[in-house]
Every structure is written in C-alpha cells, then in structure tokens.
Design goal:
57% helix, ImmA/IrrE family metallo-endopeptidase, mainly alpha
Length: 40
C-alpha cells in the first residue's frame, strides 16, 4: 500500500489499517507514528 503513494500527505491511515486489517489501538498508534515519520 505505501509503495503506491507518490505523496505521503495523501496517506489515509484508516484505509491503511483496513488494508492490513489492523484493529487495535496499539496498531493505530503505530501506524500514525509511521505516517508522521513519513511526512516529516
């Protein structure tokens, strides 16, 4: 999913989570941190 992004700011972590079937808060936080690392 991530390799298809030309612009990291277009990252939708909810779609990312559903793509990888992530349901827990821990995974949500992890994904948000990864997203912020990509954007910054």
């Amino acid at each position: 999913a991530l390799e298809n992004l030309d612009d990291p700011t277009e990252f939708d972590y909810l779609k990312f989570m559903s793509y990888y079937n992530l349901k827990t808060m821990t995974n949500e936080i992890m994904v948000k941190e990864e997203y912020l690392a990509l954007v910054n």
